[in-house]
Amino acid sequence: MRLRSLLYVPASSAKFIAKAHERGADAIILDLEDSVAPDQKQAARDGLKDAVAQVARGGATVFVRVNSAPDLRMADAEAACRAGAFGLYVAKTRSPQELEDIAAHLAPVERQIGRPPVAFVPLLEDAGAVLDARAIARVSRVVGLAAGGEDIATSMGAEPLPDVLRLPKLMVHLAAKAEGKLSFGMLLTVADYRRLDALKAAAREAKAHGFDGASCVHPSVVPVLNASYSPSPERIAWAKSVIDAAKTAQADGRGAFVLNGTMVDAPIIERAHDVLEQAGDLD
Question: Is residue 125 a known part of a binding site?
């Protein structure tokens, strides 16, 4: 699954929902949490069925970000399930048990309507969740992890500075990768979405660390994320040259070999395969 760009869309905004499928994002996150006023949450939840269908028209994967309060969370999750959303962005996930409780609530609904299990992307937003990230990643429905930098800093009594947040973000990232799950986010936070060059640099750095994609709140950022989290033409050319040379070496009965003055062995060949798979250019 390729999810380079995940665009947040308020589930209460008919105007934004109507245009979301035109934005080119790999995924749309219909938000029932922070962007929806308390007195609009019920109406936004009730409108999910139509909203999911609308934002999916361009082929985007659809998530719903659910509220963290237990009563709202279960109602949001069930509504998203019935509306046909692929998955949930589970705000303020603190433990694996919270996810298991949601799964137990959804399982009979899924059987009743005959749909696949709803996927989860937990948002880890406090210090305790960061320390439990690998256990959270092991939950069967989890397809990826993301860290909420501002909330993590608040939970630590810290300022949300890059040096403060780099370690917890990397801890969440490593937990996701250790369990074979996707990892979303950037190590540097760029608050002003108009600073596209800074966003591009931050996304390329995250990609170099192995992050798979990132979320955004403004459509202008989507093309930056799609480009930054995709292999560059130079990287694709490198990967093809490695695979071609590996085939020749294998035919000659050699394992490791030298390509352009660099030793190439199994991990590098695997990395080249990964690059071509990400590019959709793997034979």
Answer: yes
